[in-house]
Amino acid sequence: MIVLGVESSCDETGLALYDTERGLLSHALHSQVAMHEEYGGVVPELASRDHIRRAIPLLEQTLSKAGMAAQEIDAIAYTQGPGLAGALLVGSAIACSLGMALDKPVLGVHHLEGHLLSPLLASDPPEFPFVALLVSGGHTQLMRVDGVGQYEMLGETLDDAAGEAFDKSAKLLGLGYPGGPAISRLAEFGDPAAYKLPRPMLHSKDLMFSFSGLKTAVLTVVNNNGGAANVCEQDKANIARGFVDSIVDVLTAKCLSALKQTGLKRLVIAGGVGANAQLRASLNAAAKKKHFKVFYPELEFCTDNGAMIAFAGAMRLKINPQAAQREYGFNVRPRWPLDELRVI
Ligand code: ATP
Ligand code: MG
Ligand code: FE
């Protein structure tokens, strides 16, 4: 069965073809980062309009890379939520119109389920059950995953998501948008002893997170140095290092607690922050020491993409072929908790 995936929840337009027999056939992605950069963040109306412009050329590219005609698609999976309402509407409308035109069934996919299952696209995929740390731009959640659609929330952030903390702290250092990768690169040159920033909720004895105070700590350090414009490059790197060390310490410690609490030996990392080199190094070292196995998505599938949506759709269809329907009226779900997804 060949599933077309359509992702448009935020600022990436992603299309992909996944075959349940042969795996991922092709995918194409357009990131709007350059367009939103001058505003310092995603402008929802611009995002929606750009999805409209990009979707069809990306679809054509995806089909031609796979050497396929649109008629060969068996079902279409699209991101139904959560995300920006206008952006979600574009992907949903495109998927449903395509389904109607081709007479193919469609299904709405949960964006976070896409992220969560993305490590299963890798060459050495984890088996169920596992603990998943979902660290993206909008979410930081620890989950027990017993199978597709079987998600138990273990803990989440009370305020900012980890990716949001990366982006906001990077902005405070004048590193542009989205600053996650930039602050991480800069941190490599920083002195770990220069700035010891707080480790929020490290000893909270639960699996909750809080990152807004960490961003405030970065702001205080920057202000104490006379503002970002007056902080020299080395000191920026030192602050970046203090920030990254703090966030990586907290994420690693909470993953270890979640593994201990569940008794599981497999940890899966998903979402954009899962691309972070320092986080991977810390978790790999912990895995070696504590004898558990850690799995990541391929780097290109950490941030938003169509492949994870095609894959999540295919997994749902494997379990329940009725999950996709020839019903082309759609509604998007900009807010949609993942643990409401239980029923297949
Ligand atoms: P959500 O999936 O919660 O709706 P999103 O789709 O915006 O949010 P993703 O695409 O999964 O989130 O990830 C984007 C986030 O990942 C951004 O905050 C970005 O800064 C962060 N990120 C990407 N690469 C890195 C990196 N190497 N280090 C740290 N953060 C990173
Ligand atoms: Mg994005
Ligand atoms: Fe995402």
From TrEMBL:
Keywords: Acyltransferase, Cytoplasm, Iron, Metal-binding, Transferase, tRNA processing. Required for the formation of a threonylcarbamoyl group on adenosine at position 37 (t(6)A37) in tRNAs that read codons beginning with adenine. Is involved in the transfer of the threonylcarbamoyl moiety of threonylcarbamoyl-AMP (TC-AMP) to the N6 group of A37, together with TsaE and TsaB. TsaD likely plays a direct catalytic role in this reaction. It comes from Pseudoduganella guangdongensis. Substrate binds at residues 134-138, 167, 180, 276. The keyword Cell cycle does not apply. Pfam families: TsaD. Its EC number is 2.3.1.234. NCBIfam families: gcp_kae1, T6A_TsaD_YgjD. One of its GO terms (molecular function) is tRNA N(6)-L-threonylcarbamoyladenine synthase activity. Belongs to the KAE1 / TsaD family. One of its GO terms (biological process) is tRNA threonylcarbamoyladenosine modification. GO terms for cellular component: cytoplasm. It is found in: Cytoplasm. InterPro entries: ATPase_NBD, Gcp-like_dom, KAE1/TsaD, Peptidase_M22_CS, TsaD. SUPFAM superfamilies: Actin-like ATPase domain. Its main location: cytoplasm. Residues 24-311 form the Gcp-like domain. Its cofactor is Fe(2+). The gene is tsaD. PANTHER family: TRNA N6-ADENOSINE THREONYLCARBAMOYLTRANSFERASE, TRNA N6-ADENOSINE THREONYLCARBAMOYLTRANSFERASE, MITOCHONDRIAL. Binds 1 Fe(2+) ion per subunit. It catalyses: L-threonylcarbamoyladenylate + adenosine(37) in tRNA = N(6)-L-threonylcarbamoyladenosine(37) in tRNA + AMP + H(+). Fe cation binds at residues 111, 115, 304. This is tRNA N6-adenosine threonylcarbamoyltransferase.
